[in-house]
Amino acid sequence: MDILITGLLLGGTYALIAMGLNLQYGMARIMNLANGEFLVAGGFAAFWFYTAGQVSPLLTIFIVAPLAFAVNWLIYVVMLRPLVRRAKSQGQLEVDAILTTFGLAFVSVGIMLALFGGDYFSYSYLARPITLIGDTYALNRVTAALAAVIICGGLWLWLNRTRAGMSIRAIAVDPKSARLVGIDVPRLSALAFALGGAVTAVGGALISTFLTLDASTGVMFTLKALVIVIMGGVGDVRGTIVAALLLGILETVVATLIDPGLTLAAAYLLFVLILLFRPQGLFGRRTS
Amino acid sequence: MTKRDWQSLTLSAVLLAVAACLPLTGDAYMLSIGITIAMYAVLATSWALFSGPTHYISLATAAFFGLGTYTTAIGIENGMNYWLTLPIAAILGAVLAALVGFATLRLSGVYFVIFTLGLAELVRQVVTWGQNVSGQKGLYVLTDITEVHIYWQLVALAGIVYLTGWAIGRSRLGFALRIIGDDEEVARHSGINTSRAKILLFMVSGATAAVVGSMLAPRYIYIEPALAFSPMLSFLVVIMALLGGTGRLWGPLVGVIPFTLLFETISASFPNQTTLLLGLSFLVIVYLLPRGFVGLIESGKRRLRDREAFA
């Protein structure tokens, strides 16, 4: 029971990060391998504001989100749009996008190393125990998971109830046909990419309240988010959330019962099973 | 075989023989750089054998390399002959590549990239865990193999890799891979077993990287997971191969030599900026050199020829 709830709490935060990546990969069609670096940058911002000005991380996210949105929008328009235009096929765009975002990831790690050094950073925020159904949990984990639920819910409503959200989902299904029904694909792809970056950075700010981060941990989060997105089905919001919760639980089980050093191995085990048996994702339908 | 084939074969053999003479200079620093260059040349060329024609970017080099290093280290600790550990490493590397290929290469390229990205970390975590359970920290590799021996082994391996690459390029398998790289759908419709072709070549590449890992084990003397499975290695190999250009067999070598020298200089004087350098190199490759130095050389040649035609 204890493990289950801890896992669900962790999974809630993972859901938020994976949502960010899903907006970028599923909707904007850019495999962003620098995703985890934005998460770490969001965490750094929360850390910095908290230690320098005692600003609560829950308020910092309102600064982090617009900032990350603007930066990601710029990255899309300046760096990625030329690649989208240049690409002759989806495959070539994928290779270019992977190499470019790798480059971006390394550049941002380099910059963060130069600015903050290679140390781990952590701070103590809401590190109080809270009792839920007879067991105690850290309040910061519960708060982060709650915030993640609220943001995921908001995103889900936005994607399903607004015109912009529905257009973005249409692009996710088929970018070519979306153009035919009068959807401004380039503009909305940039929007989806920027929004994805903002969501990830917010996730980073929330995660930094209870996990210790350092400048080079980003890639681990990118990997986990990728595993979640693929497991849930690319472009599928509901699948992403279920997959994130599953991964959260599995990781907690492995970390408590076997060894905390094996969390990535656990994620990979799940990944291999998905690839072998349901490569279209948990809820996806087979396309070919 | 045509006359040109014989010419390029002879030229390559002569160049390899010249490269093998490097230890005769007696300069220890030159030898150490030479080993690094030879190691990356083998790794980048074998990487390009698979990723060049298919455009599947493999980031698993470090996993295979580490596997080889550990095979040799464990083998020697248990009293095995060093030379016996090399073929075992090759077999293990091929098996690991086959498993990874079987899980991911039947699907789109993105899955493969993601999977290989985490593979080294995955193996590292498992090895670390295994060591924690058995209570052992690192391994000592004590042999009488010197740097010169390592260098000669690597040059010989480079020769084998070039010969293999040349043979594959002329075979049905190489032809099939080029078609897959152009259009996988077309390849499938013309009766090519695409997964089989991709997995086979990935096994060649994986086995080679594992053997390189084995050969370098005696150089490290003391081996621990963080060293053997360093993810940096995978990225360096990708950058060097793409920087040189994967369209030609000799392409990666053109990238390896300048980049190794640049990387050694940067890491000696600004050790904290190496990640920044890697990042910028990726961006340079995508935006300025999409076909690598080879592409640059070939378009230069073409321009020269055009000018001559006009004159």
TrEMBL record, chain B:
<protein>
    <submittedName>
        <fullName>Branched-chain amino acid ABC transporter permease</fullName>
    </submittedName>
</protein>
<feature type="transmembrane region" description="Helical">
    <location>
        <begin position="110"/>
        <end position="130"/>
    </location>
</feature>
<keyword id="KW-1003">Cell membrane</keyword>
<dbReference type="InterPro" id="IPR043428">
    <property type="entry name" value="LivM-like"/>
</dbReference>
<feature type="transmembrane region" description="Helical">
    <location>
        <begin position="226"/>
        <end position="243"/>
    </location>
</feature>
<keyword id="KW-0812">Transmembrane</keyword>
<keyword id="KW-1133">Transmembrane helix</keyword>
<feature type="transmembrane region" description="Helical">
    <location>
        <begin position="82"/>
        <end position="103"/>
    </location>
</feature>
<feature type="transmembrane region" description="Helical">
    <location>
        <begin position="150"/>
        <end position="169"/>
    </location>
</feature>
<feature type="transmembrane region" description="Helical">
    <location>
        <begin position="57"/>
        <end position="76"/>
    </location>
</feature>
<feature type="transmembrane region" description="Helical">
    <location>
        <begin position="199"/>
        <end position="220"/>
    </location>
</feature>
<keyword id="KW-0472">Membrane</keyword>
<dbReference type="InterPro" id="IPR001851">
    <property type="entry name" value="ABC_transp_permease"/>
</dbReference>
<feature type="transmembrane region" description="Helical">
    <location>
        <begin position="276"/>
        <end position="297"/>
    </location>
</feature>
<feature type="transmembrane region" description="Helical">
    <location>
        <begin position="29"/>
        <end position="50"/>
    </location>
</feature>
<feature type="transmembrane region" description="Helical">
    <location>
        <begin position="250"/>
        <end position="270"/>
    </location>
</feature>
<dbReference type="Pfam" id="PF02653">
    <property type="entry name" value="BPD_transp_2"/>
</dbReference>
